[in-house]
Every structure is written in C-alpha cells, then in structure tokens.
Amino acid sequence: MRKIILPLLLALIAAGLLACASGAAVPQGLLPNLSGPWEFIATSNSDTVHSTGIEVALQAGKSLENGVEQPNGQVSATGSTQIAILTIDGATGAISFGGSCPLSGDGTYSLAGSFSSLGGPLSFTYVENGNAFNVTATLSSDGKSVIGTYSSQAGSNCSDSGGITGIVVPKLSGTYVGQLTLPDNASNTVTATLSENSSGILSVNLVATNPDNTTFTLSGPVTGNAFAAQGVFQGKQVAYDGYFEQVLDPLTQLFVPAIYFVNVTNTAQPSYAGTLTPPITNAQIPLKL
After folding, report:
1. What are the tens digits of pLDDT across the range 142-180?
2. What is the per-residue pLDDT across 188-200, written as a single tens digit (0 to 9) for each?
3. Same domain, 156 and 30
4. Domain boundary among 123, 150, 168
5. Which of 109, 104, 147, 113 is nearest to 127 (CA)?
6. Could you tell me if 190 and 126 lie in one domain?
C-alpha cells in the first residue's frame, strides 16, 4: 500500500527552521525575492489524519528604490494559476483537490502577507473556498522555509487551527511510469515525461501502451507541488489535476517521488487516475539472501 511520508517531512522542515530561525533585520532594498514555487502544509490540531496543502506560485511585491525595482516584503498569490489548495490523507496518501472547507462568500482562493527580515516574522492570510485563515510564522535565515501557526478568522464557516510549515519546492521534472486510467476508462501502462519551463508551465508527455498504444501531451500551470494540465485525447479535450509527493515503494521499501493524477475533465465527478513513480533500476531492487 502506498504511504505518504508527510509527518517525516514536516519534522525535518521544523528541525531545519529551528536551527536557522535567528537573523538580523534586512533593509527594504536588500530584502530577498520570495517569488517562486512554495508549498505550505497546514496540520490541524483537531484532525491528525488530514493535512491541507497550500500550493502557490508566490509573487513578490516590488517598489522603486533609487530608480530600481526591489522586493518590498509583500507576498501574494491569486487566481488558479498562482494558488491551489488540496487535502492530503496521511493514512492512505489520497489527494482531494479544492480543499475541504465548505463554500463561503465568493468562494475564492488567495494568499497575501508581508515580512520585514530574514529570520524574522512572516504573516499572511490565505483564503480557501472563501474561508480566511491567519498565519503567524518565522521566515528562515535563508528565505527558503517558514514555520508557524494558523487559525481561522472569527465567524468563519471553516473553524480550525494548528501548525503550518512551508518550503520552496523545485520545478517538476523527470520520467515516471506505472498504470494510469486514461480518459477512455482503459488502464494503460504509461510513461510520463515532465518538464517545467521558466514561466511555471508544465508539459507532461504521456506514452501509453497496452491496450491503447497512443501518445498525447498535457500542459498547464504549476502551483507549488500541484498542477492543472489540459490536452487532447482521441479528439476530445481532457483535464487532469496532479500532485508531486513521496511514497513508500512496496518492492524496494524505499521512499520515492511520485506523481498523483486525478481526471477532472468532468468537474462534477473527478476520478483518481493513478500514481506514477520513477522507473526501478536493478540497483534499487533489494537482494534476497
């Protein structure tokens, strides 16, 4: 059975942040640019099984300093190309895109906040399905991770509180293989090659064999470790949501990267399509004594 290693990752992130949380204030003109792919994991005080992934293509605000644009300590993410929220089941590894909060108000997703120094406080508000949460955290001395707490705003339709961590994540890339249910509902052996460009657009080239023997490409924006990609399959438009995670491989007993796919062509009935992992080499197969 697949097992996501979210608790281990959170512990490692927290340990690293506590080791480097101290830092001196930085003049505004020397603030780091936090723009890029981030993943924030919110862990509830009341629900120890499910976590919330806030996946963002973080944008850094800028101001003119002596005629040159410099980061001003403001950060934000708005719209589907910059933020996605999902629910992670720590027991099964199942991913639910869109978050678990009920629809409220305008039902939007967003993030906005500010910081003033490396190793200092970072505060922001994120909105899930129209429900707002306040975050108070500490930015690491290298500007690449945070640790803190979150709580829902007063009167929220999604009352919750807990701990939150965040890290800069690398671009999605590599080759992944496995069984994937294609839009015709046939399970195929698939090789997926991922590449993400400098603008945060992911291309997923899929080669399917047995039984379909076909190729097609999906492309779309990346937000943190999540992506939303569209393409054409057998002359019809299709759409998939995806998520990069780490899972336990039952054969090698090693934790390996994986891409989790959900077919969202029919938005009213999204369906899990499969999880692909890197090809296994002979060196990775444990010897039997």
Report:
1. 999 999 999 999 989 999 999 999 999 999 999 999 999
2. 999 999 999 999 9
3. yes
4. 168
5. 109
6. no
